[in-house]
C-alpha cells in the first residue's frame, strides 16, 4: 500500500497546506494510506478532525518514525534539511521546490536517494493545466493584488454619481498579461476601474480587450515579441526603450500600477524606474508581485510598504498565503491531478516517458536530472 505524508509547512509565513480533506479522500480511494501532521491545515481553515473524518491518520510533527516509512511527501514549499534527512531512500517528494539554483536541496535529494517533482517545471501544455500550480496560485495573487491596491488607494475604484457630484473612476495600469495579470484586470474591472495593460506580446491584446481593458499599443519596431513555454521572450533594447516611453506616460496618469511580469528562474525585468515613480501622483499605489525575484518596480522590497514622495510601493511577496483556504484547495487539486494517473493497479509508477513527468522530475532515486537548473538557475526552454 502506497503511503502519503502531509507535513506541517515550516517555511516562515506559509499558511497553505498540500492536501485538503477532499483530496485525502481521493487518495484513499486509490488504495493509499495518508498520514497527516497535526495542525498542518489549521492556518488554512482545515481542522484536524476533518482530516480524521476523511480517513487520514493524524501524527505528531516530531514523529520521525513515520517519515522513515512513507512513500510520498506532498508539500507546498521545500521541507527543511532535517525533515528530508529522515525520509527513507527511494521516497518521493512533490511540491513547489524552488529548484532554480537550489544546490542544498539537490545535495539532500542525492544523499538520501529521493525522487522529486518540482511543480514549477511542469511544461505549459494543455494537458498540464489541471496540474499547473503556478497558474492556480498566480490567479489568486492577481485577484488579491487588486483588493490590496483598492485598500491602499486614496480614491474610489468605480465612478460614483452622488448628490455632491460625480467621482471619476480610477485608472489602473497592469504590467504583464499572464495569469496573474489577467485576473487583476478582471477584478479591477469588476470593481469599476478603467484598466490599461502593458505587455510585450501582441498576441495577448485580444484577451486583454475581451476583459474590457485597453491594450497599450506596442512600438512599431521591426520585431514581433512572442513567447516561449507560456512566458514572454526577451526583446531588443530599442523596443524596450520605446515601450517604456509610452508606459511612463500612462503611469503618470495612473492611480494604481500592478506589476506581474516575471519568468521563473530569471530576475524579474525592471519595468518601473525611479523617474517613472517621480512622475506618478502622490497617493497612487504600486503593487509589485515580482518582488521576490528582484521586482518590476524600483525601490520595492519583499513584504514591505515603502512610501516614496507620496507613492505607496507594496512588495506583495506571497499573496496566495493571504487566502490560504482557497489557495490550498486549488493547490491540493493540482497535486491530485498530477499524481492520480501514476497509480496503476494499486501501484505508484513514475513514467519517465510522460511529458509532464520528464519536464518536472528533478531527481530520480537521488540522480539529479535537471543539473543545469539546479546548478546555474537556468530556466526551461
From TrEMBL:
EC numbers, comma separated: 7.1.1.1
Top-rank taxon, per record: Bacteria
Keyword S-adenosyl-L-methionine annotated: no
Key word Oxidoreductase present: yes
Molecular function terms, GO-annotated: NADP binding; oxidoreductase activity; proton-translocating NAD(P)+ transhydrogenase activity
Pfam families in UniProt: AlaDh_PNT_C, AlaDh_PNT_N
Domain (Alanine dehydrogenase/pyridine nucleotide transhydrogenase N-terminal): residue spans on this chain: 5-141
Protein keywords: NAD, NADP, Nucleotide-binding, Oxidoreductase, Translocase
A GO BP entry: NADPH regeneration
PANTHER family in the record: NAD(P) TRANSHYDROGENASE (PTHR10160), PROTON-TRANSLOCATING NAD(P)(+) TRANSHYDROGENASE (PTHR10160:SF19)
Matching NCBIfam families: PRK09424.1
Family: Belongs to the AlaDH/PNT family.
UniProt protein name: proton-translocating NAD(P)(+) transhydrogenase
Protein species of origin: Prochlorococcus marinus (strain NATL1A)
Species lineage: Bacteria, Bacillati, Cyanobacteriota, Cyanophyceae, Synechococcales
Gene that produces this protein: pntA
Amino acid at each position: 500500500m502506497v503511503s502519503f505524508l502531509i507535513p506541517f509547512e515550516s517555511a516562515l509565513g506559509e499558511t497553505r497546506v498540500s492536501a485538503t480533506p477532499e483530496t485525502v479522500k481521493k487518495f484513499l480511494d486509490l488504495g493509499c494510506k495518508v498520514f497527516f501532521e497535526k495542525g498542518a491545515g489549521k492556518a488554512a481553515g482545515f481542522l484536524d478532525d476533518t482530516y480524521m473524518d476523511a480517513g487520514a491518520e493524524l501524527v505528531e510533527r516530531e514523529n520521525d518514525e513515520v517519515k522513515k516509512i512513507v512513500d510520498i511527501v506532498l508539500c507546498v514549499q521545500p521541507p527543511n534539511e532535517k525533515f528530508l534527512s529522515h525520509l527513507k531512500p527511494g521516497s518521493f517528494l512533490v511540491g513547489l521546490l524552488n529548484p532554480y539554483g537550489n544546490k542544498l536541496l539537490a545535495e539532500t535529494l542525492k544523499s538520501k536517494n529521493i525522487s522529486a517533482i518540482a511543480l514549477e517545471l511542469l511544461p505549459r501544455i494543455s494537458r498540464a493545466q489541471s496540474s499547473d500550480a503556478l497558474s492556480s496560485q498566480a490567479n489568486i495573487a492577481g485577484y488579491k493584488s487588486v483588493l490590496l491596491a483598492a485598500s491602499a488607494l486614496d480614491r474610489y475604484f468605480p465612478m460614483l454619481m452622488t448628490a455632491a457630484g460625480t467621482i471619476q473612476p480610477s485608472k489602473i495600469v497592469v504590467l504583464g498579461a499572464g495569469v496573474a495579470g489577467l485576473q487583476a484586470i478582471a477584478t479591477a474591472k469588476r470593481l469599476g476601474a478603467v484598466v490599461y495593460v502593458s505587455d510585450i506580446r501582441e498576441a495577448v491584446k485580444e484577451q486583454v480587450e475581451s476583459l474590457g481593458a485597453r491594450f497599450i499599443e506596442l512600438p512599431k519596431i521591426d520585431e514581433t515579441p512572442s513567447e516561449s513555454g507560456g512566458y514572454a521572450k526577451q526583446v531588443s533594447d530599442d523596443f524596450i526603450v520605446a515601450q517604456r516611453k509610452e508606459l511612463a506616460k500612462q503611469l503618470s496618469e495612473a492611480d494604481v500600477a500592478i506589476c506581474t511580469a516575471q519568468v521563473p528562474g530569471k530576475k524579474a525585468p525592471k519595468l518601473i524606474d525611479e523617474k517613472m515613480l517621480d512622475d506618478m501622483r502622490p497617493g497612487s499605489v504600486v503593487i509589485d508581485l515580482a518582488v521576490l525575484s528582484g521586482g518590476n518596480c524600483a525601490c520595492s522590497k519583499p513584504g514591505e510598504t515603502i512610501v516614496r514622495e507620496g507613492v505607496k510601493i507594496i512588495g506583495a511577496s506571497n499573496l496566495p498565503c493571504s487566502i490560504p483556504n482557497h489557495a490550498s484547495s486549488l493547490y491540493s487539486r493540482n497535486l491530485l491531478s498530477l499524481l492520480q494517473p501514476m497509480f496503476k493497479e494499486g501501484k505508484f509508477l513514475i513514467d519517465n516517458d510522460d511529458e509532464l513527468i520528464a519536464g518536472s522530475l528533478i531527481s530520480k532515486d537521488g540522480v539529479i536530472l535537471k543539473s543545469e537548473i539546479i546548478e546555474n538557475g537556468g530556466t526551461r526552454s
